[in-house]
Each structure stands twice: as structure tokens, then as C-alpha cells.
Amino acid sequence: MVDSTIAERLASGERSFSFEFFPPRDDAGEAVLWEAIRRLEPLNPTFVSVTYGAGGTTRDRTTRITAAIARQTTLTPVAHLTCVGASRAELRSVIGGYADAGVRTVLALRGDPPGGPGEEWTAHPEGLDHAADLVRLVRGLSRFTVGVAAFPDGHPESPDLDHDARVLAEKADAGAAFAVTQFFFDPAAYFRLVERLAALGCDLPVIPGIMPVTNYSQIRRFAQLSGADLPAAVVDRLDAVRDDPDAVRRVGVEIATEMSQTLLDGGAPGLHFYTLNRSTATLEVFADLAVAPPAAVPAASGTGA
Q1: According to the model, what pLDDT value does residue 298 have?
Q2: 206 neighbors 193 (Cβ within 8 angstroms)
Q3: Is 38 helix (H, G, I), strand (E, B) or coil?
Q4: Cβ 305 vs Cβ 256: under 8 Å
Q5: Are 46 and 78 in contact (CB under 8 A)?
Q6: Which helix (H) or strand (E) holds 4?
Q7: For the chain, which residues score pLDDT lower than 50?
Q8: Shortest CA distance to 180 belongs to which of 269, 292, 259, 288?
Q9: Residue 18 three-state SS
């Protein structure tokens, strides 16, 4: 069984390397996703995950793909689950479906407001209001290992970074075994979050999230939506090559590699890559890191970001 593998690996000091995908909108997008999954599978990641779309709109496709990963690959899938637009009964049904598919780890998230980022959060009338509530629901129903989200640059709705740390500690108290951060670009922000968490007496493992930049305008838009800070040093390096897509991609991989090495050298328990359903940039970061991945890295050839 894989229900405690992630928690056990982190507790033992073994580094975790993982990849995140998003649910495609159509069959062509799904083919691209499966190509990326197959190219990354030989790296033997600790786990892979598939997100919900904005407002939980792709829940059915997410659950289907996550179940397919469990059944058709050697990978350990982590199932995303959000409170958005779902009653407690519906959440229990989704959790049961994951269990039936052989999925044993859930990433429990409140999720974005149903109206989209920046809108006011409204819980389902028969649902849950906070991620910690969802952690307790999952833990009460099964022996799932539960992960949660963390925000080095602060959650968009949080009044301050200390509040963010307290919320993360509450998720740990509710039964979370690890956290994965939103993507960010300043390693110091990650280390400050870990320090604030430790000051609260919480030793929850926090895995930093890395998004290799492959498209200049896209990363600016993602950062704006998520609240992630784009440091001036990062912006300057990308601005210098913004009119050359190949150079943007190359510099993006360099930035991600440098960040990843700094985080690992500073004691981060691993790395979680936001792949955008492409494999090449992630493969190149792995190849450039001065740390051996869990398995031999295949050549980063072919198309794709």
C-alpha cells in the first residue's frame, strides 16, 4: 500500500521529487498530458498530482485521470480535493471513489472562490469553509495520508504572513502530514515560512513548489492571479530576453535550477514541479541540478515546454 509512503519518506529524511499536472479541456490536451506523464515516469517521482480547474470545474476529469494514473502507471498519484461547490456528502463520495481506484493520498484544499480568484469566498450551504475542515473530514473517513497547501508569498486573502503560518499549523493539527507550496521565485520567502512555522512548534514538512518559466506573459499572469511575488532580479533577467521565446525558456530553466539548488542546499525536503502538462523544462532542471534524481534522467529531447 502507498497510503503512508510519502509521510514515511519525508520523516526518514528522503527527498521528495514530485510533479503536478492540470486536467486538460479536451481529448487532444489529454494526449499531451499523457505524453508528459510517460516521459516523467522514468524519474520515479515520489508522487504526481492533478489539480482541479478554477472553481472545481474539472472535478470529474480530475478524478478520472487521477484514478487512471493509479491503475495504468507505476506512479503514486496524489488526489486534489477542494471544498468548492461541494456538499459534505459529495466530498465523501469523491473520497470513496479515490479509495476504490487505489489512491491513498489526498491534497486537501479550500480552493479558489467559485467566482474566481479575487472574488469573495462562499462555502457550499452543506459544505466546508476551511481546508483544515476538509483535512479532518478525509482523516475521519479513511486512512488516507493528507497533504495541504502553503503560501511563501502569502495567501491572497491572508492579512499577513504570520497568519498564514498559523493557518498552516492548524492544518497540521487537523491531521495533515505534509504541505506543498504555491509556486514562488524567492527562496528566502520559503525559508521564512518554515522558520515561522517552527516558531509555532510545528515541524510539518513543507515541499517547495517550482514553476520553470517557459512563457513570459503567462508567468506574469499566473503570478498576478496567485499572489506570487516576482522579484526584480527575476523580472530583469526575463525582461532582457522577452522578445526571444527560446531565450525566455532557457533563462526560465536557469532560474528554476538555481532556485531548486538553493532550496535543497538550505534543507528543503524536496521539490514539487508545476509542469503545465509539459515535460521538457522539468527534465532539463533535473538534469542541471547537482543532485541525483531517484532514477536515471532520460534525455530532454523533442517538443514541448
Answers
A1: 45
A2: yes
A3: helix
A4: no
A5: no
A6: none
A7: 1-4, 292-303
A8: 269
A9: strand
Neighbours of 147 (CB within 10 A): 30
Q: Which three cell numbers stand for residue 152?
A: 511563501
Report which residue type is found at 280. Answer: T
Report the CATH number that the domain containing residue 131 is assigned in CATH: 3.20.20.220
Active site residue 120: no
| CA angle 268–270–275, rounded 5-degree value | 125
Let me know if residue 187 belongs to a domain. yes
Residue with cell 505524453: 35
Q: 150 lies in which domain range?
A: 5-288
Contact 101, 66 (CB under 8 A): yes
Q: Choose the catalytic residue: 8, 14, 20, 195.
A: 20
The three grid cell numbers given for residue 169, joined into one nine-digit string: 499549523
Largest CA distance in the chain: 52
**Which 3 state secondary structure label does DSSP give 240?**
coil
248 within 8 A of 216, measured Cβ to Cβ: yes
Q: How many domains does the chain have?
A: 1
- Cβ atoms of 66 and 107 closer than 8 Å: no
Residue 303 lies in a domain: no
Asked if 193 contacts 165 with a C-beta cutoff of 8 angstroms, the reply is yes
234, 218, 217: which is closest to 277 by C-alpha?
218
82: left (phi over 0), alpha (psi -120 to 50) or beta: beta
3-class SS at 49?
Answer: strand
pLDDT confidence of residue 146: 95
Residue 192 to residue 212: CA distance in whole angstroms: 22
Please answer whether residues 119 and 148 qualify as being in contact, where contact means their C-beta atoms are separated by less than 8 angstroms: no
102 within domain boundaries: yes
In a domain, 302, yes or no: no
3-state secondary structure of 186: coil
